């Protein structure tokens, strides 16, 4: 029979496994925090003002060990888990949201999806360059007429022609699209099968028939290059297909749950920075002869922001723990689908509340576009839209609850 001390030890181990960091994870987080604060944070202002992305930034991130978190060491990666990858994304996003967004599209949506679903040849060909930053990755899913219904309404096609596929269509709102070397693209290979007739491809952007139609000017996350991509008789070899033909949905869904858990982590990092900025400002801003931090109304706001941050953190860690080590082909249904949608939903709304209150603490200065709190405020709306809108997240949760 289990003793009370044994039960306590077991409970503590389970809690720590889900809500605490290992010594190695803490060392990684400390390293990422230092380099993000010293290298990435100073870039914020120019990136936001000019929608500017430094040409060599991905290579610099590769040299700093910020890329290829889940890739094996023999391929140039860090050999860490998806949980650790999310921690890295959380910290980068805290100090530079635009870099955090591009990092997630590169390291998770492209590189990690390729690791999970690509052939041995594809992995060996592309992953080392993605880890070093010599190659920039992106994911091509959303289309002008296919957002929340990205799979059902997809119009981009890939037609077999001998040993090649010929791709026609367009993708929009593609993070890293204007600077990508490699795109994990989804296209319909059998229109008659609807969403079940979609296939995934690795597209090299120097292929004839590919072009960036436009670089988009955004409200927030400015500097992270976002674009509209066009494919006009873009010919790729059949070996560029990821997985068997018409199995692209499983590739999408295998990465979507992790993407939502990662978005929750991004929200946590940015909400944590909003708390820091609100706290700093409340201590130095004086009204009526004393710091506004001494007023109970301001203290109430700070307490509420802290509670939102830590609740979202605990929820995101739980979702990430469930995603870590998820078998190939798993996800997109069941408990994990419900959990990650809920974590993403809560974290997005928690960040919205946190940054709104922090911006309010700043008063008039928070309304000025060149302040850091304003940059966070303008970025927050995307986190209730990307990876499935808040409404779509609620639908997923309800469907899984009713299916049980």
Q: CATH-wise, what's the superfamily of the largest domain?
A: Butyryl-CoA Dehydrogenase, subunit A, domain 3
Outline type:
globular
> What does the main sheet amount to?
4 strands, mixed
Taking the alpha carbons of the first and last residues, their distance comes to 34 Å
Q: Beta-strand percentage?
A: 5-15%
Quickly count the domains.
3
Q: Helicity range of the residues? A: 40-55%
> What's the alpha carbon Rg, rounded to whole Å?
22 Å
GO molecular function: 3-methylbutanoyl-CoA dehydrogenase activity; flavin adenine dinucleotide binding
Protein name: Cyclohexane-1-carbonyl-CoA dehydrogenase
Domain Acyl-CoA oxidase/dehydrogenase middle: 138-234
EC number: 1.3.8.11
